[in-house]
Amino acid sequence: MPLVTSKDLFRKALAGRYAIGAFNVNNMEIIQGIVEGAVEERAPLILQFSAGARKYARHAYLMKLVEAAIETCDLPIVLHLDHGEDFEICRACIDGGFSSVMIDGSRHPFEENIAFTRKVVDYAHPRGVTVEAELGKLAGVEDDVAVSEKDAIFTNPDQAREFVERSGCDSLAVAIGTSHGAYKFKGEPRLDFERLAEIEGRLPGFPLVLHGASSVPQDLVEFCNRYGGEIRGSRGVPEEMIGRAAKMNVCKVNIDTDIRLAITGTIRKCFAENPSNFDPRLYLGPAREAIRGVVRRKIGVLGCGGRA
Prior knowledge:
alpha/beta, TIM Barrel, eight-stranded parallel β-barrel, two-stranded antiparallel sheet
């Protein structure tokens, strides 16, 4: 099955009241684990690469991995650029075979963000590519995107409709309390569902996106720490909150940290239990299986199983 855009998948997600997992990819084992988990659950899938992943693995290699994925399964798959920082990287991904891109103009003032996004939309749409934009700023760190808690800005519902209408974007990432990385909350986890409902009211039937939405399961954190990790005090978005958002107009939920924890914990365990091993297949293989388990768990939370 060829790559698809997010448009039809999001239309179905809105109608069915579920969200689709957008999983970050950096190498072969990650993409294999993600695809295998989605195949088992018969779930539509968004594979996304950050600028850092493109720099690490290189565009040509990543495209061949995606090509292998779509040749070996019959799932609808979107290939998405996560956090495109400028027009040039979005254009490179559009020309390079991506079916969806995100232009992140959230660091700019409102008018500049609109213009920034509109430029990408005007290039992407004639080429059959969908565009995600962001309004508001999430705290945390992801690749080169770093925003302190004091600089985080929740999405203004009064601006959301104007932004979408003038920018022409196909989906909108909103800031309602999620954040990038493994340390999302210092106190009690809280998402601003009232704000989310207000945004929905101004944008009825429009696809919304949650970034920084890994739940950072404590069993994965403890597993990693048991074998030498030092991930202390990490807290993610509770799965019940993600599930609640998925029943609203949130059609896409970004997941990266949970996969990293599963990989790291599994590899640490393999090294601890088999210190003489130097065959990468014997620790990357189990890591791939761990990723598959995380993906199946997330699909259950998002409610997209059986929707392929």
